[in-house]
Design a protein that fits this description.
Blueprint (H helix, E strand, L loop, with lengths): L1 H17 L12 E9 L2 E9 L1 H8 L2 H11 L5 E8 L3 E9 L5 E10 L3 E6 L4 E8 L3
Length: 136
């Protein structure tokens, strides 16, 4: 059960790390972001304080985005591959190991719309987030 809980938390981090809005050419800005992640029929609130260096990682090319994701998603839990980063969208594949060694492969897609964003993955999880101001 602990591993399954851990996988849910990692899934939330995967989404919230990508669920920040675009600003001009940036996909995300530093600040406080809040939202929700729906996975397995359950809704989880999310809140993240994004530093300027974290925002810079997500605003970069596919190589920079992958490097940033690998700092927040432990590689022993999920291997990140096939990262694509465009002006307003990030898509990547996550191969994750859950409870009992069960492996899940999913493609995560997040779109950005100025002051909000939304994302989905191929397992049916959904996320949305919005900028609420400076970090608390």
């Amino acid at each position: 059960m602990k591993t399954n809980h851990r996988l849910i938390v990692v899934s939330m981090f995967m989404f919230t790390s990508l669920a920040w809005p675009a600003h001009a050419a940036d996909r995300m800005r530093a600040g406080q972001w809040v939202g929700t992640t729906i996975t397995g029929g359950k809704t989880f609130p999310t809140s993240s304080c994004v530093s300027p260096s974290e925002a810079a990682g997500m605003n970069g090319d596919a190589t920079a985005v992958k490097a940033y994701l690998e700092t927040i998603i432990p590689p022993q839990i999920c291997k990140i591959s096939d990262v694509k980063a465009t002006a307003n969208q990030v898509i990547y594949t996550a191969s994750c190991t859950g409870g009992g060694g069960v492996k899940t492969v999913k493609t995560v897609t997040t779109s950005y719309h100025g002051d909000h964003s939304e994302g989905t993955d191929t397992t049916g999880s959904k996320t949305e987030a919005k900028l609420v101001g400076a970090c608390k």
